[in-house]
């Protein structure tokens, strides 16, 4: 197995097929019936996820929720993704999953998932109607922000590096500086 495996069965898989996948620390996602498997993330990735949650949660309005992976977004029978971080309306969430597009999906890049996050997953989020898609690079601290335009396609609205900050308006006002997302790791390396 490679670090990021793609499996194409003779027919498309469904979300029911995901329930029989092993609990082995990998992330199993389904896009248009195709299975994508990625390994457990590393230290910098997890630190950035944790810090992103702290920043988003501190600014989050009461009618919205900030959730980390694994939490399933299942908008169709052949689609289940698990953003590293998502923001959703309270009324849209179930105990088991989010059956509609989140307001915000955040992916922190890993060496094994970079192409997947920047292409396949970005296209899937766009088709789902995810209003804001943020991509964070932990190796060269960077935040790239895409927002859904009226034509239904993502537009690049911000690309900030290091200590530069992004002042988001969607899904709510919050300020994020990529280097800060590394927390103490930024000071020790």
Give the terminus-to-terminus CA distance. Answer: 31 Å
Strand segment tally: 14
Question: What name is given to the CATH topology?
Answer: tt1808, chain A
Indicate the CATH class: Alpha Beta
Keywords: Endonuclease, Hydrolase, Nuclease
Protein name: Uma2 family endonuclease
Pfam family, one: Uma2
Domain Putative restriction endonuclease: 17-173
Structural commentary:
The protein is built from four helices and 14 strands. It is an alpha+beta fold. The protein has a single domain, classed as tt1808, chain A, CATH 3.90.1570. It has a six-stranded mixed β-sheet. A three-stranded antiparallel β-sheet has the order 1-3-2, covered by helices on one side. β10 and β11 (142-148) form a beta hairpin. The longest helix is centred in the N-terminal third of the chain and has 17 residues, at 43-59. Mean pLDDT is 91; it is low at 1-8. InterPro entries: Nuclease_put_TT1808, Restrct_endonuc-II-like, Uma2. It holds the Pfam family Uma2. Keywords: Endonuclease, Hydrolase, Nuclease.
């Amino acid at each position: 197995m490679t670090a990021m495996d793609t499996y194409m069965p003779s027919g498309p898989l469904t979300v029911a097929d995901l329930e029989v996948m092993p609990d082995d620390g990998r992330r199993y996602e389904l896009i248009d019936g195709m299975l994508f498997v990625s390994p457990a993330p590393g230290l910098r990735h997890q630190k950035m996820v944790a810090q992103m949650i702290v920043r988003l949660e501190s600014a989050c309005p009461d009618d919205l929720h900030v959730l980390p992976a694994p939490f399933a977004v299942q908008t169709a029978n052949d689609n289940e993704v698990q953003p590293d971080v998502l923001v959703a309306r309270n009324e849209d969430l179930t105990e088991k999953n989010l059956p509609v597009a989140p307001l915000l999906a955040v992916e922190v890049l890993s060496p094994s998932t970079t192409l997947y996050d920047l292409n396949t997953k970005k296209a899937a989020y766009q088709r789902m109607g995810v209003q804001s898609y943020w991509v964070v690079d932990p190796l060269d601290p960077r935040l790239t922000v895409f927002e859904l335009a009226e034509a239904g396609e993502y537009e690049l609205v911000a690309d900030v590096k290091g200590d530069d900050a992004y002042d988001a308006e969607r899904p709510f006002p919050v300020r994020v500086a990529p280097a800060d997302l590394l927390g103490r790791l930024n000071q020790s390396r």
